[in-house]
Each structure stands twice: as C-alpha cells, then as structure tokens.
Specification:
Layout lengths: L2 H17 L3 E4 L7 H14 L4 E2 L2 H7 L9 H5 L12 E2 L2 E2 H12 L6 H13 L5 E3 L5 H18 L6 E4 L4 H19 L7 E4 L5 H10 L5 E4 L1 H4 L15 E2 L2 E2 L16 E7 L5 E8 L3 H6 L1 H12 L7 E5 L1
Parallel strand pairs: 1-2, 1-8, 5-6, 6-7, 7-8
Antiparallel strand pairs: 3-4, 9-10, 11-12, 11-13
C-alpha cells in the first residue's frame, strides 16, 4: 500500500512548510477513515515532518511521540470544589488554595472556577507536563488566567508548565494577547515563562496557515487534524502499479492515452546534494545509469547538463537505496 501513505506524507510536508518556524502535531484521529486510517495518518504524518500525534494507540504502536492537551469534556466535567477534593495536593501543598491566593493578588476574581478545578486536578497528576486548553469558557477572561495561576503555583514548587492550546477565535490575535499576559505576569514574579508553548488548532488548513503568517502570531505548534488525515486538497493519489522490467527484460505498456504509456526499464533514484550536504532535488533515472552518475563529478556535471541543461560544481549525488 503506497498511495495513501504517500499522499499523507506529502500533505504533512506541505503543512510543515507552510507553518514556517512553528511545529506541527497530528490531531486527526476522530476524522480519519476508521481506526486503520487513523494509525496510518499518525505514522506517515510523522514521516512527513510532524513532531508527534495525539493518537495514544498510534504512539504505542509506532513509537511516534504522543503530544496533546486535555479535552473540553474533561474541563467541563468540573463544577464544584468537591470535584477536585482528591486531586489538589502536591508535595504537601494545596494547589487550589495556592492558586486562589494568586487569583486574589492579581485581581482575577472573575475566572471560571470549574475550569480552575479542572486545571488543578490535571496539574496534580501531571506536574511536569501541565498544559491547558483555554477556550472552554473565555480565552482571555478565564482560560489563560487560570492557566497562569496554576503555572505560578507549580513554579513555586519547582515545576515548569508546558503551555496552552487555543481552539477557537482569532488565533493570531489571541496568541499575541496570551503571550503578552504570560510575559507580564512572569516578569512580575521573576519567573521565566518564555518556553511555555502556545498550541493552536481548529480546522487548520493551508489557507489559514498563510493568513496566520501574513497577520503574524505567537503560535509555537499547530495541531492539524481534519485537513491532514482526509487530505481535502487532494483526497486520492492516482498512482498505479505497472511492470517495467521482468527477468531483466524491459516491459512497456502502450495505450490510446499518452499519460498511461509507461517508460520501460528498472528505475532508481539519485538524490543530489549541495556542498553543505543539503538535498536539492532527486533524479529519477534508469538503474543502468546510476554508476555513471555516481562515478565522479565530471560525470555528474555531464549528466546534469545533458538532462537538465544545468551545471554546478557544488552539487554531488547519492544513490537512494
């Protein structure tokens, strides 16, 4: 099976290129074409340049890093203080009481308490990897502030939080506003929150990535799901299997349609690198031509000039096995 994996890896690479300096994580489990499609998406998006997946089972099977935050359902399941009564103590400290102290001190007394209970409970379980989904109620009026409250308490105890995830609204402006309030608060208390990541999701596609780039943003990681795993820009890749050589003899398929006529002979790929050992492009050639290309620089220059009308003394080939 090569069509879907190739399509997926190519699509992932396009997203990576569009994301610029930001990283990409695969978030497509719920929209993939069944369990198998979800596993394939996780594996081949990682091969395409993504740094991880939110699919826990795919991570277990493939070794791809498992990354993500909590769900809205987790946060919205907390309503009253008793909901976190068994998950608020860490290293002898009551995280909720300490967070409430900062809440009063900073004047952020209007944040959603159910959300804060959820954050405290999650931070107690994962103090070294605390991250928060901040738009369940209001990103700026509640989510980001509750995250900072818990992050300050964790910092007092010697733990560094991971960051936040935005999942709705104007991602560009919200990322800037969240970064600003994190920086101002960390400076106020003498803490360094500069490494706290801002993750963004919400049906991200190439068009929205371009818009974010044009408008500027403070997003470190993009969580990309639907438009990655369903490959909406090109849902299917039209590759087919044809015999081009059999027992050493080239085979050629003829057709009334020119694009279906095959090029006979066993093929190989030669990757061309520059003087800094960075890949520049690939050459698809006959297997019999590989030795000629790899032989020496003069042969490479001859080949490039003959085939591509190009010549460069800084390029060097390497056969892809």
């Amino acid at each position: 099976m090569t069509n879907f994996p190739t399509l997926l890896s190519t699509n992932a690479t396009r997203f990576v290129l569009w994301s610029g300096a930001s990283k990409c994580v695969e978030f497509g489990l719920r929209r993939a074409q069944g369990p198998n499609g979800a596993i394939v998406a996780s594996k081949y998006s990682y091969m395409g340049g993504f740094i991880g997946t939110s699919n826990v089972y795919a991570s277990f099977l493939t070794g791809c890093p498992c990354l993500g935050t909590v769900a809205h359902s987790f946060i919205m399941s907390y309503e009253k203080e008793d909901d976190c009564k068994d998950s608020r103590m860490l290293d002898g400290k009551d995280l909720l009481l300490e967070a409430m102290r900062y809440r009063t001190e900073l004047g952020w007394t209007s944040t959603n308490m159910g959300e804060l209970y959820a954050y405290v409970s999650f931070a107690t379980s994962y103090p070294k990897a605390f991250s928060a989904l901040v738009d369940s109620y209001s990103t700026m009026n509640s989510g980001i502030k509750n995250y900072i409250l818990v992050a300050l308490v964790l910092k007092d105890l010697g733990y560094d939080s991971t960051g936040i995830r935005l999942d709705s609204g104007d991602l560009s402006q919200l990322s800037k506003d969240c970064r600003k309030i994190m920086t101002e608060t960390s400076n106020k208390y003498g803490y360094d929150f500069s490494k706290h990541m801002i993750v963004a999701s919400n049906d991200i596609n190439e068009t929205s990535l371009k818009a974010l780039k044009d408008n500027g943003h403070e997003i470190d990681v993009f969580g990309i799901g639907t438009n990655l795993v369903t490959c909406q820009a090109q849902p299917a890749l039209g590759m087919v299997y044809k015999v081009v050589e059999f027992q050493g003899t080239p085979r050629m398929k003829f057709s009334e349609e020119v694009e279906k006529i095959t090029i006979p002979g066993s093929k190989s790929v030669v990757r061309i690198y520059d003087e800094a050992d960075k890949p520049q492009f690939d050459l698809l050639c006959l297997q019999s031509e590989v030795e000629q290309i790899l032989k020496n620089e003069n042969e490479l220059k001859y080949f490039l000039k003959k085939r591509l009308d190009s010549e460069s003394s800084t390029l060097k080939p390497h056969a892809i096995k």
